[in-house]
Backbone:
């Protein structure tokens, strides 16, 4: 198959079964919403849940659900090539927009700098606030910020990109408009290093801090380097290892404690490891530095937050790199959804051993690495996204940062029009309904019924249940003692970008206003959930003492 092109005819036959099932599924959604029926599973009684008595597990940060805007989106450059593109952007020379070392340049396409002043982009981002906005990514490791008054047309030696001072001002302005706190990382490539010792120098980081301060901005948290497990891809010197990382981190920590004492230091920001060797991405890539080696070269006092990245697989673009992924027909499978836990378990164990008690942040995640699969922009991925949020919150992760807000196939928004994709609507409902206190639903994760519980957002005593029905074609049910406000997401086609809320299409208004998210009142008793649907059940009057 040609790289960067999605051939629907080549999709596994079961993927076509998914599409064939969507019309019957939609009909079943309406049937179950409008009329009572018998318990979905005739072989056993539906499980019961009492929202008023669910116990507290933990809490998440008020900015738990956050997002990334890649540094490359700010500067312009070659990012993951979309599977479908209406029009090709002007292509600069390869020297002006290089690709990461060791990666196939055919996987990338040029994007001009993103207009962060776009009203629709700002409005939709603000609707998810408060949040963290992370501006980082592989390309940030080798991006040069000129000094005040310095005029250059190409990156200096040892750098691959240029961040103009006006572009960084656009980031600060966007963060203010979107009610977002800024998270970033700094340039660490060859151009930042002392010519004799090879040690990292602070010049570029100091410029970023000074410019941010002069613009009235604040960096809430910073990672020294984006993904040090793949340091070579990020432009580190040839042969860079854990010992060099440890020496650099000591310089970075001392610098930040002196010049930005109110900025949290997050790290190491690793990616590529898992408790399941079959889905481990890192061991397949040359130059990989395992996280235990990085931690051995560090001390716990050098970080305030233990950060990691999570990609359950690699997209079709990276199939030639022999990196494991998944197929469209398996998007609702238990094995695929459970990869979030496999990766979390790996890094949480390291956190517990190295820096017990420090907050655990997932600072970058998406459907798959390498820009996402063709179905990352469809309703099919909303099951993974919301299930991931539920698992992470229960598992002790305080912050999750989605990659990206509006770039490539895995963006929350279309990168050209900024129209909401299904995951945006999923994010908006989570933001409106799921509060910061995580409750124990008491139910195991079983195929067809994943139930997560939080105190209801902005409603003391209230409880919200998130019910993910990932079974086809069987319906499932829960028994609850009280009535609820029901919000059910479904789709005419699972592999499409149209989303329905309680049977009505979700879309922006003529002035880009968000639609009213209308609930359906449900009485207590048996609650049915149609195949391949996602439902939030809100109980504002639950009077749960853990939510007071």
Residues:
């Amino acid at each position: 198959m040609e790289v960067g092109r999605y051939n629907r005819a080549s999709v596994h036959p079961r993927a076509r079964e998914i599409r064939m099932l969507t019309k019957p599924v939609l009909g079943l959604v309406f049937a179950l919403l409008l009329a009572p029926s018998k318990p979905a599973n005739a072989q056993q009684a539906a499980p019961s849940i009492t929202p008023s008595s669910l116990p507290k597990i933990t809490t998440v940060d008020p900015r738990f659900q956050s997002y990334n805007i890649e540094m490359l989106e700010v500067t312009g450059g070659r990012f993951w090539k979309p599977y479908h593109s209406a029009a090709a952007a002007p292509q600069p020379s390869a020297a002006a927009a290089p690709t990461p070392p060791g990666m196939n340049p055919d996987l990338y396409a040029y994007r001009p700098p993103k207009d962060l002043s776009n009203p629709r982009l700002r409005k939709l981002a603000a609707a998810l606030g408060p949040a963290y906005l992370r501006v980082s990514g592989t390309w940030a490791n080798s991006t040069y910020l000129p000094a005040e008054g310095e005029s250059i047309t190409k990156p200096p030696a040892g750098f691959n990109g240029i961040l103009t001072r006006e572009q960084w001002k656009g980031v600060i302005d966007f963060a203010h408009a979107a009610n977002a706190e800024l998270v970033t990382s700094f340039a660490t490539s060859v151009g930042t290093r002392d010519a004799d010792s090879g040690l990292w120098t602070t010049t570029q980081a100091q410029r970023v801090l000074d410019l941010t301060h002069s613009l009235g901005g604040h960096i809430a948290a910073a990672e020294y380097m984006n993904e040090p497990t793949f340091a070579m891809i990020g432009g580190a010197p040839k042969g860079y290892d854990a010992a060099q990382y440890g020496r650099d981190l000591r310089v970075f920590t001392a610098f930040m404690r002196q010049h930005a004492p109110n900025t949290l230091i997050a790290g190491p920001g690793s990616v590529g490891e898992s408790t399941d060797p079959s889905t481990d991405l890192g061991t397949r890539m040359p130059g990989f530095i395992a996280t235990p080696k990085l931690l051995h070269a560090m001390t716990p006092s050098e970080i305030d937050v233990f950060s990691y990245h999570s990609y359950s697989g690699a997209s079709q673009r990276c199939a030639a790199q022999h990196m494991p992924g998944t197929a469209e027909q398996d998007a609702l499978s238990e094995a695929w959804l459970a990869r979030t836990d496999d990766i979390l378990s790996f890094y949480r164990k390291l956190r517990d051993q190295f820096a017990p008690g420090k907050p655990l942040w997932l600072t970058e995640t998406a459907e798959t690495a390498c820009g996402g699969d063709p179905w990352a922009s469809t309703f099919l991925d909303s099951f993974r996204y919301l299930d991931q949020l539920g698992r992470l919150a229960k598992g002790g992760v305080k912050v999750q940062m989605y990659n990206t807000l509006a770039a490539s196939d895995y963006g929350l928004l279309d990168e050209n029009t900024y129209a909401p994709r299904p995951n945006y609507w999923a994010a908006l409902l989570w933001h409106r309904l799921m509060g910061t206190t995580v409750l124990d639903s008491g139910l195991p994760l079983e195929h067809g019924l994943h139930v997560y519980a939080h105190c209801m957002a902005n409603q003391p005593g209230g409880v919200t249940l998130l019910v993910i029905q990932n079974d086809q074609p069987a319906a499932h049910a829960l028994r609850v003692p009280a009535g609820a406000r029901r919000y059910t997401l479904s789709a005419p086609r699972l592999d499409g970008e149209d989303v329905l809320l309680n049977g009505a299409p979700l879309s922006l208004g003529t002035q880009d206003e968000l639609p009213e998210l209308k609930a359906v009142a449900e009485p207590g008793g048996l609650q049915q959930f149609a195949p391949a649907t996602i439902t939030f059940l809100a109980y504002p009057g639950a009077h749960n003492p853990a939510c007071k």
Notes: Residues 32 and 168 are 50 Å apart (CA to CA). Confidence is low (pLDDT under 50) at residues 1-43.
